[in-house]
Amino acid sequence: MASLKYASFIQRAVLPDQKVMENMLNEFFIFHQPRDIVSGDFYYCSRKEDYIVVAAGDCTGHGVPGALMSIMGISFLNEILSIRGPIRSSRILNLLRERVMKALHQRGYELENKDAMDMSLCVFHPKSGELQFSGANNPLYHIRNKVLTEIKADKMPVGIDAIEENSFTNHTLQLKPGDIVYLFSDGFPDQFGGPDNKKFKYGPFRELLINLSDKSMEAQKKELERVMSEWKGDQSQVDDILIFGIRFI
Amino acid sequence: MQLVSFRVQNFRSIVDTGWHQLAHDNITSLIGQNESGKTSILEALKAFHDGVLIEDMLRSDLSLPVISCKFNFDVSDIENHIDKRRLNPEIRKLISSVELVSLTRRWEDDMDSHMEMGDELQEVYNETLDQFKKRELKVMENLEHLNRDIATASKKLNKVQDEADWTAEKLETVRLRINEIKRNFRKFPSKERKVELRKEIELEEEMFSKLKETLQLKIDKKEEKQDILEALDEKNQVSTKLKEIQEESLEKKEALGQVQDQLKQLVQMTGMYSTEREQRAAEIKEEIFRTDIEKFKDELEVLNDKQLIQLLALEYVFEGKSIDEALKAARKEVDAVKEYYSSTELAEEIFKILPDFEMFEDFSSLLPNRIDLEDIIRANRRAEGYKAAINFLTITGLEYSFFQQPSSRILKQKIENLNGELTLNFQDFWRQNVGKNNKININFELSHYDHTNPEKSGKPFIEFWIKDEQERLYPKQRSRGVRWFLSFFLELKATAMDKSKNHKVLLIDEPAVSLHARAQEDVLKVFDDIKERIQIIYTTHSPHLIDVNKLYRILAVQRAIEDDMKSETLVYSARSLKSATADTLSPIYSTMGARLNQQEIIKSFNNVIVKDLATYYFMKALVALTGFDKECYFLPASGAESIPMMVNILMGWGIDYVILNFGNSEERLVHEKLMKEQYDNKIDLASKQMLFLEDYQDTEDLFSTIDFKKYVVKVREGITVRNSEYLIDNNYSRAILASNFLQDIDSGKVSFNTLDDETRANLNSVIQQLSAILK
């Protein structure tokens, strides 16, 4: 148990520093509630030249295996951003997938390791307000004036795919001040609870985000925590929960 | 079923080729220097099919050949031809889940061979064998215990017997003593004495009854021990039977070994007999040995079954079954196992539906001037042109009896009709496949040797003629090209007439070896035309028999140590041709060079000098992909260091040129050198003739990793280094990959739209820069 707690300390240490994130992002919140002591969900934030790269990842499994994968994911993202080349969200996910496949010796054979991660990744260019998004199974929600737009993810993970790997799609958005984007794992919508012990589901999740979107980011986080706590009630948590909300000003 | 890959072990100069894939489009060429082992590979494949091995095919250490071939198949191919009930359920499951099946032919000491299933299925068989072995070990262990128990029981029985004997003896002594006392009693003893004697009798009788009791106990114990021993002995009967069979089997094996040795010695003598009589005697002896070997093998098989039954019976006896029950159960189990195909049986069944392997070689496959009927009847394969003559007879549907027609007039008329048909067929083939319109007639006649040939005088032979509009000549008097095509036509025709529906694999050693370059290219055309029906594997030295756009068809064969004919043969597949020596690859280099010449690529302007052939192919691919509309002519140098020399030549000829360099260290050096020496470091001057793409180490780095994996190198693994570094690290041949990539673009498999954003952006950027610098 002591070693597990220490592992969680290390995992927290590799996650981005809160203060550095505040400098880069101004208004944001991170609602990160691991199911176990360590988590397979992780978030990422880093600056590369004029760009800010943010991501929310969800590794297969939870607990220790997920945590090890998440540390791998963060290290690989750091490495990718340190090499030369165009800064494109799809390229970052493509290169990340190469590293995951190589690290896990994935070659498309039947009995090999199939671990992977789902991820939404944004590249923001503050000067122009352009936002690039690429998603591996996880979408991006964009809210402007209480209207939510879902930018769909590619249906493939960061890791070996069932048949063949393709390039991730690079979506671009022109942001306006006050726009909010949410990156998240499936932990919140998939949590069981409520009067009928059912999943929270994506529809109500989107409604909730729309309703909260005019509140401050801090207030949104508190409200999300409260809603989740009430929904869950006495039920145990199914998976790690991560929601990363950013308001652009 | 299509032959997809092969592996040859211990065959002439080959130690182990490893698995090598054949070209997916049914044409594979083996290239390499003389004596490199190309023909050995063809012969090994033929031996895989025929099972015929001759002495000179063995390695000098006499290790026995093992040849494996892998075939792709449809599960129905197999299921329709074999008895499904005889498939072990696990094998059946495996067969329906795999797409490839491999078979291995192994030779044994008597130069005989057997087929077995390849590794995929053999593992299941080995597992079954292992299980039997484990059971055998367990039985043997129990048997040891049994023997120990018998020894102990026997010892105990002896001890009890001794004790019982001793007690009985003692009892007898007491009984005698009682009688003695009783006798004394009758001798009217005194009163006191009587009292004493009575006491004595009482004591002795007490002793007697005790001893009697003890004796009864000992007898009971003895019976008990006897029962134990008998029970143990009963079990031992089965083991005794097993031992007998094992001994008999051992004797048979020894006898078999002896005959196999004798046969081996005899085979080694083949060809060394001076008279025909000796040769004939040796042949008879060989036949006797082979019959003996067959007999011993059959007997051994029966003994093996018996042995297995006794072994399993023993196992059941140990489990507590009676001998009868155990034997019954063991027989049932062995019968069930035998009901399933063994590895060899299954391999033999599958073998029946495998492609037929035919060898086409100049000596026996080229149409001869004449062949004796006797050679045909006696199936004398050593006769020159034997195969071609047989093909000829197959096509014409003739048998030996045809030539025994009593009426020579009818015979002549029939021959004339057949000659006409054959000519029409061949002309059609010649026009369709070779695209030429020569009027060539094929004629054959039946003649008899005359007195000028006293040895054969009066004997019949078939004579062949090839006629055109001007003259009638023997095949050997015609050009080798016509003769080759004619003979090849006979082979194809005969193959097509073969009643078996199996797919064919045609093995051709040095096709059209002495044909003119154009005729050799015709051969390649014919191969392409028939490849759907017949799979072709051929050896060649000729650049004209290699399609430079289809380098995936090539397997390079060379010795481990160049020029050392004693070193082993190595085979390189298309992807690793880089490891083959320049001499081995010379036909490819010649072909590439030849093609470049044919394209007359040096023009008066827009010549683009690139580092090498790989860059040449990649740049051609880039132009094809982007639809770049400016005319430009890429000139490959033979390495970055040759670029300055090419620049000098083009300058000397007054030809306009542009130099394209990438950012790797060699090209960077060349770029810097030219900048300094040609342009005096004046960038504005240099930029009109030098394009330096320093962001990319090499052409392949223009591709995103995912496109590079999908379309160029065709692998599915994580690549975390530059594409160019990956090729170096994994020893890939850039030229082959680039050539194949260009081929895929030409065939429409890859287009600009199939590439991802990153690649497209890179390609567009290079094209823009190129466009800016070209006229």
- As a percent range, the share of strand residues of chain B is 5-15%
Q: What is the global morphology of chain A? A: globular
What is the helix tally of chain B? 23
- The helix content of chain A is 25-40%
* Unreliable sequence segments of chain A: none
Distance between the termini of chain A: 43 Å
What is the CATH class of chain A? Alpha Beta
Q: Percent helix among the residues of chain B? A: 40-55%
Oligomer: heterodimer
Q: What is the H-and-E element order of chain A? A: HHEEEHHEEEEEEEEHHE
How many H/I helical runs of chain A? 6
Structural class of chain B: alpha/beta
Number of E-state strands of chain B = 20
CATH topology of chain A: Phosphatase 2c, domain 1
Walk me through this protein's architecture.
The complex is a heterodimer of chains A (249) and B (775). Chain A starts with a helix and ends with a strand. The longest helix of chain A is centred in the first third of the chain and has 20 residues. Helices cover 33% and strands 28% of the residues of chain A. With 249 residues, chain A is α+β, with helices and mostly antiparallel strands. The mean pLDDT of chain A is 92. Chain A has a single domain, classed as PPM-type phosphatase domain (Phosphatase 2c, domain 1, 4-Layer Sandwich), CATH 3.60.40. With 775 residues, chain B is an alpha/beta fold. Among the domains of chain B are: 200 residues, no CATH class; 137 residues, no CATH class; 175 residues, no CATH class. In chain B, strands 1, 2, 3, 5, 6 and 7 form a six-stranded antiparallel sheet that branches. Chain B has a six-stranded mixed sheet with strand order 8-13-14-4-15-16, with helices on both faces. In chain B, strands 9, 10, 11 and 12 form a four-stranded antiparallel sheet that branches. In chain B, strand 17, helix 16 and strand 18 form a beta-alpha-beta unit. In chain B, helix 4 packs antiparallel against helix 5 and helix 6 crosses helix 7. Chain B is elongated, with a radius of gyration of 42 Å. In chain B, 34% of the residues are buried. The model of chain B has no long low-confidence stretch (mean pLDDT 84). The chains are: A alpha+beta (249), B alpha/beta (775). Chains A and B meet through helix 4 of A and helix 20 and helix 23 of B.
